[in-house]
Amino acid sequence: MPDLTALYDLIPRLLPFQCLEARFMQQALVALLLLAPMTAAMGVQVVNFRMAFFADAISHSAFAGVAVGLLFGIDPRFSMPALGLGMGLGIIAVQRRSGLSADTVIGVFFSAMIAFGLAVVSRDRSLARDLQRFLYGDILTISQPEILWLAGLFVVLLAYQAWGYNRMLAIGISPSLAQAHRVRVAGYQYSYAALLAVVTIFAVWAVGVLLVSALLIVPAAAARNLTRSAGGMFWWALVVGTTSAVAGLLVSAQDWARTATGATVILFTCAWFVASLGVALLRKEQAL
Questions:
Q1: For the whole prediction, is pTM greater than 0.70?
Q2: 3-state secondary structure 5-65
Q3: Rounded-to-integer distance, Cα 221 and Cα 187, Å
Q4: Within 208-260, where are the H helices?
Q5: Which residues in 93-125 are b (16+ Cβ under 10 Å) and which e?
Q6: Which tens digit of pLDDT belongs to each residue from 172-195?
Q7: What's the Cα-to-Cα distance from 231 to each of 76, 130, 220, rounded to whole Å?
Q8: Which of 132, 172, 199, 207 is spaced 20 to 30 Å from 285 by Cα?
Q9: Distances in Å between the alpha carbon of 283 and those of 223, 232, 236, 242, 278?
């Protein structure tokens, strides 16, 4: 396993905050610096594809994933992504073959996963205590193996975005038009759903089931207010997501704050959105 000690030791030198002298804070910062750009990049396409409900459904499948893992003695770190991945691909497959609207298919899967998770948890009250950390998230407990998994996912996502961003943008505008230009719409839809499912499950560990949708959507929504171009929206989303993650981690660790890290990160993204809304309104007035 690669040793990240040198990277951790570099953090207090670059960011001389007392809270970053602790190793668990250094690991949390590295994890957020990997996770925040991924959720921001995927969030741009979530907004363009109108898939906010999809991400919400995947995040709630974490309940069922943890329940299945604990029930059958499987590590939830494996059962959660596996179930989320299966659910994401299942939604796309049923949507493409049934003729039902995306919202309807997602709603059916969403309801089934929530009901299954609650049914399993209701049989054993001890499971409910284990589920609470997934409900609220806890990036401060992330381990080095999980950071390495995040790094691997980061590389895969970077290559995917570099290769397919423009094609995904064309599919978001019009799948029929994209297909006419020989874009493999089905392949991109399946691969995007799979990647989004895995990124969403990792994000659940950071901010919890209740807030994971905000981590995907709010940076992209703020970016849309700040720029009019598709490329600008992508880069602004990265700026909003990454700065919010770092600021949220640092502020939540202060003695005067002592807030949940995930919730604090989301509050900073919302502050970005409010500021971006002001920029958008000002631009609109100038255009009149």
A1: yes
A2: HHHHHHHHHHCCCHHHHCHHHHHHHHHHHHHHHHHHHHHHHHHHCCCHHHHHHHHHHHHHH
A3: 26
A4: 212-226, 230-252
A5: ebbeeeeeebeebbeebbeebeebbeebbeeee
A6: 778 888 888 888 888 888 888 888
A7: 37, 41, 12
A8: 172
A9: 14, 16, 17, 25, 9
